[in-house]
Amino acid sequence: MKILRRLMAVFSVSGILVIVGCAGMPENTGQVPSYALTDTDNTAFGYAANKKLAAHPGKSGFVLLPNGLDAFVARARLARHAERSLDVQYYLFHGDLTGRLFLNELVKAAERGVRIRFLIDDWALSGKDRSLAVLDAIPNIEVRVFNPFNREGSRSLQLVGRLGKVTRRMHNKSFTADNQITIVGGRNIGNEYFDADPDMAFSDLDTMAIGPIVKQVSRSFDEYWNSELAYPVKAIISEPTNPEEAKALRKKLDDFIAENADSPYLNSLRESDLSKQIQQKTVHWYWGKADALYDRPEKLLYDKGKTELLMATQLSPIMKDTQKELIIFSPYFVPTNSGVASLSALVERGVRVRVLTNSLAATDVGMVHSGYSKYRHDLLRNGIELYELDKKLNKRQRKEKKGQEGRKKASLHTKSFILDRNKVFIGSLNLDPRSFYENTEIGIVLTSQEMAVEMATWFDENIDKVAFRLELEIDADGYERILWHAPKGDPKGVYIVDPHTGFWRRFGLEFLSVFPIDSQL
Q: Is 377 part of the annotated catalytic residue set?
């Protein structure tokens, strides 16, 4: 009887947890539709863009932002010089140095009368509701939270009770000023994305764009902003704010900026490559036809069978049309059996396929590496060339990152493909099931031989300096093992296990790899 009572108690508690976890969302009230402004040709950005576009009819112009300092400078200048609107869409927005610097630019823009629509995913907003409400209360700023957790229940319990709902997130990243110029790519807002983290050096990539592509990105933003999954802050945070809280936020930002006015990071921003190019009017633009690809926001409301909602459906024919060469940058690379088959089919047609992803030591999400590692043998066996980023920065990289010896760990965060040295994809999409089926994503496909050749040439000339080359060795008995050929300068030369990792970390990842969790990676 004691055992029976204990079991009943366990089941009762489990039932309560499920009920709490399954609590429904509040009604999405107060959501007034709004759209990107269309009459912005008379803004400074409009005049400048149209002047450049006149020489390239029908095309869009692009500036690559591979450097974290340049990527922050680009965003800050767009915010600082916007006249009519800023549309901001991110998965993560940290309250660290770069987060507060960026927030300060948004608030100052709002004070100038710029309309700001700020759409943020709810994944990392635990404990930040009050800050969101205060930000939303500032005139000209409206904040919406995408696919929010229920504020009346435990987030942890909802991860269990609403599995498959709250675990599906808006991973899109875009920033558009005056509907005239936009930034799309892999960066969230936080120190690690903008070379401000003393311990982590993310290698990431954005592109800043003008021309017809901007209207496509704005159309995507409008779909998400007006989606039933985009909740105005007041719909989920009921406690009202008062004007004093907004004033306090403004003072905190002012004090913070004053304290950091002469900080090494702000001085680095002033001396960044892009800052100098803007001053000297030497910013290099690439030109070409382009399309914005993105998941429809309704993707999160349906299962993966609704293929018409998926960005992957738009991207697949572009990938399959590759004729000679495909270069992939993907920090989280979990190809699954179907992905292995697709890449292998390209190789069989004579396409050279090379993939750069994170090594186990370099990745910031070890569980994803467990999903990738079990496909390495099949990929190598079928002729796909694999490279894994070394976590250690070489001297040139440390100089670029302004880091000190041993201070920084490198990690790949770039999400980009180069197709036949003619087309380039840049966006938020990882090549893994979570990006394809669970989260929403955005990216730009640009036809520009100039950009594609430059990026592919960088790969050719630098890959053996920054990454391990994997080789599948087969002995006389048919036993296979992977060898990691070290980057130039590594005295060890060849590793026979995941480089720079200990036994227990490798064991843990090997253990995880046996579980059927690819769909969540």
A: no
